[in-house]
Structures are given as C-alpha cells and as structure tokens.
Amino acid sequence: MHALDRKLLRDFKRLWVQGLAIALVLAAGIAVILMSVGMSRALDDTRAAYYDTNRFAHVFASARRAPLSILPDLRAIEGVAQIEAQVRAYAVLDIPGRAKPATGLLISRPEGEAVLNIPLLRSGHWPETNSEVVVNRPFFDANGFALGDELSVNLNGRKRSLTISGTALSPEFVYTIGPGALMPQNETFGILWLTAEVMDASYGMSGAFNTLGLALLPRTSVAPVKAQVKAVLDPYGATTPQDRSGQQSNAFLDAEITQLRVLAYVLPPVFLLITVFLVSMVMSRIVQLERSEIGLMKAIGYTNLEIALHYLMLAGLIAALGVGIGWLAGSWLALAMARLYAQYFDFPFLVFGVPLSVYAWSAGIGVATTSLGALRAAFAAARLAPAVAMAPPAPPRFQTNLGDRAMAALHLSQPSRMILRALLRWPLRAGMTLLGMALAVAVLVASNFFPDAMEEIIDSAFYQSNRQDMLLLFDPSAPVSAVEDVRRLPGVMQVEPQQYYSARLINGPYEKLVPISSVSASADLARVVDGTGQAIAPDPSGVLLSDRLASALHVTVGDSITVSFESGLRETHQVPVTGVVTQFFGLGAYMDETALNRMFRQSPRLTNVNLTLADPGAAEEFESQIKDFPRLVATINMTENRQSFLDTLSQNILVVTTIYGILGTIITVGVAYNATRVQLSERARELASLRILGFSKGEVAYILAGEVLLLALIAQPVGWALGAGVASLMTSGFSSDLYAIPLVLEPGTFARASLIVLGAATVSVALVARRLNNLDLIAVMKTRE
C-alpha cells in the first residue's frame, strides 16, 4: 500500500467522530434527494405505465344528454384517435347491515371491450346480467364485502338490489374522492360498473350518453380539440371539456408529484451548504496542524498534486460514508413513503425503486460537495513551500481595538473577554459557524410550521366556513319542498338550502371553470369567512372570489369578469368582482342567492341541503331514513369527514415533524461538535496554559464552550428569518388549484426549533469539553522549536 494511502486511513480513523458528524449532515441531504426525487419519479413512472396500458383519455367532456349519432362527428375531429361514450350518475347506496348510506358513482359498462379508461378487473367477472355490479377494490375492501354479496342502489328513484360479481381499479380513479370530501373515504364512496342496459333504462339514456373520453394522436394540440368538442356538444348541454390537468384524480397526483419535487429543490441545498462549511473548517485545521508533515513530504519528493489529492481523498472518504448512509436512509424513507401512498392512491402496481441514475448523481453531488469544501485547504497545502511548512506558523498579530475598550468598560471577566476576542478576531469562522446553526433552526422552522398551518386550515374549513353535520346533494330537478321534507326527518335541528352552478369565469385570455355557490344573507352553516373568521355576505351586485381564483384570473375588486354558466339556464353575464376572500380548498366563487335567482329569472331552487343534527346520537337514525329520499344523489357526513381528515393529518404530521426534528438535530450536532473540536485542537496549548496559571477546569471549559454556545444564541433570530423564508418558498411551491397552505408561524414554532438546536449544541459542546479533563498538560505544553 502506498505510504500516503496508509496515512489517509490513519487520519480517517483518528478523525472518525468528526468525519461521522459531517457524513451524517451530508447523508441527510442525500436521503431527502433520494426520497423526494425517487418517489416523484416512481409516481410519475407508475402513472405513465398505468395510463398507457389502460388507455387513459386525454380529453374529458360531459353533457346533459347527447345522442350517440353525433359520435362520428366527434371522431372526425382532427387529432382524435379513439372515443368512449358512457352514462354516469351519482346514487345513494344502501349496504346491508349498516345504517349509514354510502354514495356511488355509477358507470355504464359497454357490451364489448372498453377502449378508453379501461378498468382493470382484480377479482370475479364483469356483469353478465342486469342484476350484477362490479365495484372498485378499495370500496370492496373497506366494507368487508365478499363476491356474491348484495347492495341496494337508488337508481334514479328506484331502489334495486345488485350482486357484486367482481372488483376493479381504473386509471380514472387513482385518487378516489367523493363529492364534498377532502380525502378518500373508501367506506362511504365507491365506483360501480353496471351494464349499459341498466343505466340506459334507469336514467332515460337509451341511444344517448352524458360523458365522453377522447384519446388523441401523438403531438396533437389539446386546445383546438377541446374547442371543437365543445362546439359539437354545446346543443346538448355540454360543460367545458377538460384535459388531464382538469381531471380530479390526475390533478391530485400532479399536486403530490409537484410537492415532492419542491421538497427536492428546497431542503437538500441547506444540508449540502452546511457540509461544505464543515469540511472546509475541519480540513483547513488539519492542514494547519500538519504543516511540518507537508514540508517533509515535499522535501522527500512528493509533488504538489499528490499532496492536494491526498487531502481531497480524505474529504472523499467522508463523502463515501455520507453517501452510503444517505442511500440507506433515503431508500428506507422512499419505501415508507411508498407504503403511505399506497393508502391514498389506488394503483394496481407501483413501479417502486429509486432509479440507478438518482443514486449515481446523488453520489456525484456528495463527492462534489465535500471536494468543494476541501478545495481551499488542499490548495493551501499544495502552495506551502517546504522551508515555510517546516517552520511553525507565524503567530497572529494582536492590538487593542474598540471592542477591547468596550469589554473593559463593561467590566467583563477575563474568560468572557477571551470568548468575545476570538469571535471578533476570526469573524469568517464565527460567521460560518453561526450560519450553520441558523440553517439548522431554519430547517426546523420550515418543517414545524405545518401543524400550525393545518390548524388554521381546519379551523377555517370545518369550524368557520362549513359547520354542517350533514350535506345532502340533490338532482337539479328536485323541488324546493324537499327542504321541508328534510326538516321533518328525525333529529334534524337546522336546515339551509344552497345552489351550485358550474360556470366559466373569463377575464381576457384568463379562464377558469369553477362552481358558483349561492350564499344567503342569513347563512349560518355554509358561510364565506375572511381571514379573521368573520362571515362575509356577497354583495348582491356582483361576485365574491377566493384569493387564488382572483389571482389566476388577474382581477381585483372593481374589475368586471364574464360569467358563462354551464348549468341552469346556460347564460352569459358581465359581473363585477365585489370582493376577494382567503380560501384554502379549491377555487371558490360566491353570489348572493337572491341576486342569482333574479339573474336566472327563476324562483328559489336547490342543489344541496346543509343541516345540523340535535345530537351525535341522532345521526344513525337520520341516515337510516335518508337512504330512500327522492331525488337524493349523494350524502356526506361532514362530522365523520372532519374526524377522518384530522386523524390522518395528525398521524402524517407526527411522522414528518419527527423526521425533520432528527434532521435539524443532525445539522446542529455536526456544526457544534466540529466547531468545538476544532477549537480544542487549535487552543489546547492556550487552555493548558490557563490551567497552569490557576484557572479552574470550569473556567477553562467555559472559554471553550462559551464561543460556540454564544454563536448558537445569536444564530436563533437569523435562523428564524431564514426559516420563515424557506417556509414561504414551500407554501408557494405546494399550493395548487386544489388547495393552498397558509404561512402560519406561531411563537411556539420558533421556540421548538430553538429549543432543539440549543439543546443539541449544548450536548455536543459538553462532549468535547469533557476531553479537557483528560488533557496531559505536560504533553500539550511541549512545542517544537
């Protein structure tokens, strides 16, 4: 083995604790890269394979009732490859042995093979008779069904018992979320495939369809196709066709993949930057301590390049250790994330496995990071002339300055003055140590603000805006008298009808398809609230928009927008924007109920009913009687919806905050331990001299630890500011049309971050300070003349 190689291994063995501390910081960055990039690619690859295999459509359209005779016109549109027309409807389901109803999305199954959005049969067989049904697998499992079990379906007012003949998954429903729900609730919402004959007969759709999927040829522009499809379907009550970005399940998948990518861009650079600083600090000190050895090596013939490479290779060993640990941790985190996603996304398979390319370039990033940190020290070693290297380094020059006079005026003790002088005379080192501590605080602040943000979302969405116990969705043809029928049901305490109309909001080139909700002046259950929790009644003269919708349309209060209704009378109106309100879920638009009815020249209508129950115990009896309610198409138990959301959220937040708490601790330990350890190696002779001069062990330990702990204290407000900035970047990156995460930074968030960092710094410093007790004063005081 080469002599320099033996020295390299000895040095690494001697510095293993410092090397491990640095490697753990690097490993944290590598692990986050593997988890976020690996999982985003896994989701992307799985989605692409699933969509391709099962022919997921590119364009989705719907109409009230369009004749099958227009399908040739749709197929003739340039760029259209395939078409699938279906009949779909929501219905209330009655599951035997359970009081509460469920909601189902009913889909007609063609007699032949499906050509688009092909469901994948997981068990059993497709319906062979009109009394059979196939249900989606998550709904089947959540309710403990077995093949051959029966359930009752309210088919357009007629209750019919169907036998479960099989289970399936569909690329349309990777994220299966029911109407009014915030996340999947597989027990109460399912997808049901019935024969086309049953659907046609039940909903009067013989020779017609109400939903359409279109697959396009490669390199076909989607926008012109959507426009032509809209033109063909418009006479039949069409809504604006959507591409994949507007398809609900795919939109949730897109949002999740985007979040993972944002995570990969925001957090790893923090860990890599700290690694560069730590490697630079440690390697610079090693070169200083090994000046004479460097001189000897040059004197016996080693070249500058060999010596520079020697120190770069030492940094490379740290990189190898960090990359190895990061690979293990990142693979484990990616697997844990995959299991978590399996609970929410209904893929028939998961292309799991972090691509080798991600491992390769993460290793390259790790080596480049440590090499960058060691570069300055390696060049310094290479530039040292043998004669200069063999001599002790020139002592630093000291002189009395303003800082010394200020310390004297404050009557500080000598140990305290020593601490402050060290900070003032080596500002770069002090600044880098402070920055490392501040970044640790920033990571903790940026990860721990989520619980507070979620608390604000929950309070706004569940306790300020939507305060109902139950939400009932009705067919548009339901009479207003249904409100009184609901009011007479057992346990009902408060009832409020509401209307929803699909509409395109247009401002020049900007356009959004959203539901417009009616709000009455006396609304108490489904309200519009501002950022302070105060209820807002829409001005009768215009429309009230959510802040993200107003931003997407590039409008402010006072601007006028075009509202093209796609349900109701399908009219177009110019409406002023009379208000903008903060909203976290979806893109909301609201109009005064009376003004909306006047605009449509109609008497009061309803599409849904909000209600509260006298007590939680009344829910079971109420739900048992609502199953057979005429014109009812869906029920949502908002109380259970809230609880499910809270339970899932609290579990996920606990996992996330624990992981980032560990990462923040790793950063702190890496910075504090290495900074203190370098100080000890630099100042061992000075500290030993103080012991000989009569300073106690406590005073000497105070000098050693005080500098790092003082920097840790000063780093707190800097870290708070950096953390707020990182959190702001994350909220911007995570927000989408589906939801927005508010930037909520409570004092407790900063306090928790500071407590973890200061605690970890104190423990790290204490570990190094213990070495002072074992100092051999005679050996330390020896010096080579």
Automatic annotation (TrEMBL):
Keyword field contains Zinc-finger: no
Membrane topology value: Multi-pass membrane protein
Keyword hit for Transmembrane: yes
Domain of life: Bacteria
Keyword terms of this UniProt record: Cell membrane, Lipoprotein, Membrane, Transmembrane, Transmembrane helix
An annotated GO cellular component: plasma membrane protein complex
Domain ABC3 transporter permease C-terminal residue range list: 270-383, 660-775
Primary residence: membrane
Transmembrane segments: 262-287, 308-329, 349-375, 653-675, 700-730, 750-769
InterPro entries: ABC3_permease_C, Lipoprotein-release_system, MacB_PCD
Localization in the cell: Cell membrane
Domain MacB-like periplasmic core residues, every copy: 431-628
Biological-process GO terms, alphabetical: lipoprotein localization to outer membrane
UniProt xrefs under PANTHER family: LIPOPROTEIN-RELEASING SYSTEM TRANSMEMBRANE PROTEIN LOLE
Similarity field: Belongs to the ABC-4 integral membrane protein family. LolC/E subfamily.
Protein's recorded name: Lipoprotein releasing system, transmembrane protein, LolC/E family
Organism of origin: Tropicibacter naphthalenivorans
